[in-house]
Amino acid sequence: MVSLTRRETLAAGAAAAATGGASGDGLQPLTSRSGVYTPARGKAALQFGFDFPEPSAPFASLLFGFRVNTFENAYALDAARTRLEWSGDSLRIVCEGLLGDGGQTPAPGRLTAELHRDADGAVQWKVRASAAFAVKSITTVVRGLPRGQLSIAAGEFIDHGDDELIFEYPQLKGAMSTPLAALQGDDGSVWALSARQIAVRPARFFFQPGPEGYRVELIHEHEGWNRSTDIETALWRVGKEPSFDIAAAKHFAHVEKSYAIPHWETRPDAPDWMRRTGLVLALHGAHWTGYIFNDYARQREILRWTATQVDPARVMVFLPAWDGRYYWNYPRYLPDPRMGGADGFRRLMDEGHRLGFHLVPMFGSNSANLALPEPAPYRDAGVRHIDGDAFDLNWVDWDNDRRGEGWSPVMNLAVDSWRSWLTERIASVLSEFGADGYFLDIAGLWENNLHGDMFEGHRRLVANLALRHPGKPPIGEMLYDAQMACTPMSQVMRYPAWPAGYDAYVRGYQHLSRPAPGRGSTGVHEAGFSLYDQEIKADQRAIPTLTVVDDTFSTHRQAMADYIAGARRWMDTHG
Fold first, then answer.
1. What is the bridge-based pairing of β-strands 203-209 and 105-107?
2. How far apart are the C-alpha atoms of 483 and 350, rounded to whole Å?
3. Among candidates 537, 528, 545, which has minimal Cα distance to 493?
4. Gap between the terminal Cα atoms of the chain
5. Residue-wise pLDDT tens digits, 341-364
6. What pLDDT sits at residue 15?
């Protein structure tokens, strides 16, 4: 195995850049195991069990290698058929043939990478690859980056030790809401790695530690609904920045321009009441089992009392599981007879408005129970991954038999049947009951799939509802960056994981799973119980949120009053 220290990497880059010319002589004969711990010293990712060829070209103090993945295999560059063409601050890498069978057999295909050093010293590049089979993804391997703490999607810096780490945009589980990673070296340097996208596509970041630095994989995956034997990546960028704030500002300036994201102060889809919201009151309805935490009559009683504690005009009333059995009843979206029926729900909305509150019911943007007895005209809209396998919402154990349930596929808003169904159900609630907006559960889930861009489906849903019900804004959950263009507010899953760059464009509030006063019940949410924290920090960016379950109002009313008083103080600070 070839081992390469960071110092040797820098020296190789400088020597090759000085030679100029057009040949493959500057390629370093590296493999997938060069310069990394074998075996891993911390948590390990799945790997080839051999040295996969990774010939790498030096440029701007870094080394760049590539891999091509089709739907049937993984391919390396054939160094013997690769040339490097230097021109000033640019390098063109041209490979006229690939290697299959783990590097043992020549294979048809081509790869071209265009690298350029910009005015700030950062390297930007795109890669184009073709093969005999449809190309699924292109990986760029970057060497020469130091070890250090990592910030993902403008989050806090964390020292992950010797763990091998995978982050994916825009996946909920990867906690990557924008394709930006920052590496803070032990010397205080800040390296920013980002995908400068103009359309939402998968971007994966793999950090693999070695004794001197990280080996980093930056993976662009092509859209699954448009297979091709010839694909091009988004623009990648890696560079050393004076500070993290500067790195984040550059990234979000690109995001803002790419998706035409309006600034919070001027965005037209955020009504005045949303701008003034300083407390979210989450009144939990019915659990998946049918257990009712608060029926409509009880919710009206809670609102009457809350109006004596705080100006209702500053409060958004969030209604999770207003439609009966949580998730099980998705996507009927009808008032629940056991909770008071249509008349009871109407009285709740009318009295809430009379008091001055703004009420927002919850809808599932990508979940439908196919076990319901009625016909499902949206049955064709279940998500199928890029490889064709079904994507089920099966990670929640609703019935506590200690195994996830399998009756709900993840639904795709890019499919007309599902988007039309959900549009009509939301529109019906907005018009019939006068809701002030609508919440889209798990809106931040985007999956590469066979049937279309889920972001475009989300955008079209929001645009259609805005035409029919102007002034009734959408609220999302765990937004990825592009969604800020059409969704002005979001529920935040893991505060303070809310990216700092989002504050210029949207507002966030704490999650419905935030524990309620008392025993810390998370209500309709599957988490069950957790520790209740009454503290509202003065510098807290997420809007304070109070969860109300079955015993909150009857037993812990003083704790509610204390929390609301804290929210009033927070409002005084935040306007």
1. unpaired
2. 31
3. 545
4. 60
5. 999 999 999 999 999 999 999 999
6. 40
Buried b (16+ CB within 10 A) or exposed e, 134-157: ebbbbbbbbbbbbbbebbbbbbee
| 401-457 pLDDT per residue, tens | 999 999 999 999 999 999 999 999 999 999 999 999 999 999 999 999 999 999 999
Length of the chain: 575
CB 543 within 8 A of CB 278: yes
pLDDT digits (tens, 9 = 90+) for 292-309: 999 999 999 999 999 999
Residues 315 and 264: their CA atoms lie apart, in Å, by 19
> Residues with Cβ < 8 Å from 414, sequence gap 6 or more?
225, 449, 451, 452, 453, 454, 456, 457
Sign of CA dihedral 385, 387, 388, 389: negative
CB 35, CB 7: distance < 8 Å? no
Please provide the average confidence, as pLDDT, over all residues in the chain: 94
The type of residue at 151 is: S
Decide: helix, strand or coil at residue 45.
coil
Q: How far apart are CA 284 and CA 282, in angstroms?
A: 6
- State the Cα–Cα distance between residues 409 and 366, nearest whole angstrom: 8
Apex CA 43: angle with CA 248 and CA 500, to 5°? 20
Angle at 442 between CA 291 and CA 249, to 5 degrees: 140
Phi first, then psi: give them for residue 484, nearest 5 degrees. Answer: -60, -20
DSSP labels, 457-496: HHHHHHHHHHHHSTT--EEEES--GGGGGT--EEEESSTT
What's this model's pTM, rounded to 2 decimal places? 0.94
